[in-house]
Amino acid sequence: MAQEPRKMKETMMARRIIVIGANAAGVEAASAARKKDRTAEIALISQEKNAGYSRCGLPFVIGGQIPSFKDLTVYSPAYFQMLKLKLNTETKVTAIDTKEKVVTAVDKVGSTESLQYDSLVIATGADAFMPPIKGREKQGILSLRNLEDGEKILQAVQNGAKSAVIMGAGLIGLETGVALIERGLKVTVVEMLPQILPAMLDADMAKMIQEHLQEKGMCILTGKCVEEFLGGDKVKAIMAGGEKIEADLFISAFGVRANTKLAVESGISLGETRAIKTNGRMETAVKDVYAVGDCAEAPNIITHQPVCAQLGTIAVRQGKVAGTNAGGGYALFPGILASAVTRLFDIEAGVTGLTEAATQRARIEVVTGAISSKTKADYYPNALPIKVKLVVEKESQRIIGAQIVGGEEVTQRINALSFAIQKGMTVRELAKADTAYAPPLNETWDPMVLAAEMVLMKLR
Amino acid sequence: MVKVDNYEVPEGLYYSNDFEWIKIEGDKVRMGITDYAQKQLREVVYAELPEAGAELKQNEPYGTLESVKAVSDLVAAISGTVEEVNAEVQSKPEILNEDPYEKGWLVVLKPASLQAELANLMDFDKAVEWHKNQGK
Fold first, then answer.
1. pTM for this structure?
2. Which residue out of A56, A219, A225, A295 is catalytically annotated?
3. What is the ipTM of this complex?
4. Which of A105, A260, A390, B93 is the most exposed place for a label (fewest CB within 10 A)?
5. How many alpha carbons lie under 13 Å from residue A453 in its C-beta half-sphere?
6. What are phi and psi of B73, to 5 degrees?
7. Per residue of chain B (136 residues), what is the pLDDT tens digit?
8. CB proximity B6 to A under 8 Å
């Protein structure tokens, strides 16, 4: 009974929640925590100058579809005020003491502060990755990760850059390439692997996009490594596949790597993808410490193997789960399908679940079906091509992956197939799906259903 | 009524830094949230309001609004005794999004020290400037 007063005092004290990182995952976590706990002291700490903006929108400011980087703000200062979230920008967390539950942070004027937490959410994101290429210390190699990166690229364009080399044909590389062509630059994309969008699509689907991009004037060199950056202090050209390519602007889009330095230094375990290991509640191996977004790994729904998808959609879902738990609630993250879509000039591409290539790596046996169709009735004017590819696990006959490339109407089909996969739908069930039709909007038989029929025939 | 960016700012009201408006109606004051506030919160699902007779203090919370993604305290623009509560907002909170300045009023107060507290609020011109500085 002697401890009773102290216990009383502890339960009366407001919960202290610290979130490191203030973009997609971090702000979502803080908001979810606030919804669970109205009295908690919630602080966000971000190294960046800008918080609560959409990284995914950066290429579209460069392309000119969005007038300014300011328009990418998703959460205004008023939002933080209304939810009583204390936002500390340009502040770097230098250490986490997980035993004493203290975070050490240094602000932009260099003053150090120690902050106590009851729950900590790590949302440190990812950093642009630069392979050990000769000459990489030279100036003028830009990347596109944060708002300042975007401003630098746009500045270079406005300063009269006429040509650009983009290293890496992933989503960011290609979206940036399209944006620069729209700004009138001559763009060359160099990709080490034999196809574009290697993490997203199978080669057969990626080929359709590559052809479209080439028609639009993008020069794409696949199967070529960047071997060297050439020039004096400043890069003037690259060597790729033994060929010298000169340009005014060099953008590295080799991909991103989970930013785990702080976690590692604090003794928080990484998983097999080298991102922070988490459980279903997005907790790390250390009690009361959560990790979310691009710095965290979580299981793939199909393979049950950890993956680090590094998508905004995953970041916000994980952020919500971690924030709910950090605020004293209960939520589980169901796992990752990695549904993603993009639009490159006049072509859209989407994926959900596993590609055929990924099933081979996971040693899952599959049957695939791919159907080319139109986005409206074949006789209706301006019907655009669309191709749906289904990946079906042989034994269970469940759909475990889908890819779509088409002129329009890709996203909601990817979403429908994502629901189907998440619910464990079999290809037989999909073949009986009750889809909608009207001549200006769809074919009588939706291509998803036809692709399912094709797989069924192959399974016979 | 003017529109600053996408946000409506009616004339004849006083505004607080915590996104509330008041309208002086004789010796009573009607209070609610601004168009800007409802747009930040988006679809309001739940409104927790005080009961008649409650004493509100300027700059202190008197209720909460909860939307799908957010939750925010209601912070009193002025002090006073609650005389009326908008029951319709509690049963149909979407009114707050549809019509924050008219049908979406929250409470009617008998003000405690209106004249003194008005100095802490913004008039129409100041509110327009304030909205301009809010950015998005």
1. 0.91
2. A56
3. 0.83
4. B93
5. 9
6. -70, 150
7. 788 888 999 999 999 999 999 999 999 999 999 999 999 999 999 999 999 999 999 999 999 999 988 999 999 999 999 999 999 999 999 999 999 999 999 999 999 999 999 999 999 999 999 999 886 5
8. no
